[in-house]
Write the structure tokens for this entry.
Amino acid sequence: MKRIGILDTIVAQQLIRLLGNGAFGLPVHLEVMSLFKWNRLVTMAEDHEVLDYLGKGMNNNLSEFQHFPSQLADEIRIRLRQFVIPTFDERYAVDAIHLHSSRPKRAFEELSDKELYESTPETRRLFLILMRNVCDMMLSGFCLRGIIDLGLALRQEGNHVDFVKLESWLDLVNLPRFMQLQGSILCQCFGFEVIEIPFMKEEDPKAGRLALSCMVDIGRYSSSEWNFRQVSGGFLFNNSRQWLRGIRRTNLYFPYSPSESVRSLMHSMATSLSEIEE
């Protein structure tokens, strides 16, 4: 797991506090930070698609910002106006979920053909959020937006979720440690109780640390960014920064699903190579 510097730890924890307040109404006490740290915090929030919840957290605690840099406050307002709040589109979510291990992939495809649509919308939505988060972790890196979406779905729609059906689906796709990881992040970062997360069988003690480690790695991987590029003369060059990120991500999530993490890396390499012009 990536070592986190003191500065990054302070910034990430401050962001977690503000998001906890903005998304879940948790009480918050903020640390005094420099302009540099606040700029880094806003960049983290933007990178994790949670600027709207950051804005709510800041608005809920205006008394804490008496000495907040006015220049940065104006910049945040501009970014918030430009920020497009991600919406959850069920059909898009199904199409965007790509697993690479044979058993989870086959199970998800069979479920999405019919059984998913024979359940309540809330059950289906919660399952798709969990699966989308797994794919995000594997292909582009941990994203706070997905964890907050999961927490809000549990809090707002949990009474309408058929958790017996949900757990049967999760058993079929067979990625249990990834599901425990998501629930554990909610507990350790956003104050959830284990009883609020029926599908979580055991809390992962390293989840909070893993979340903080991933938060500070600003610049989430995009599949549109190349791993390999061909230049004149036929030589191949690899994007070492993205390549190292892929290796680090595979190493990070290997304990949660060795097969899926390795196959996702191989898929990323194969896709990049296939896009090189002959």
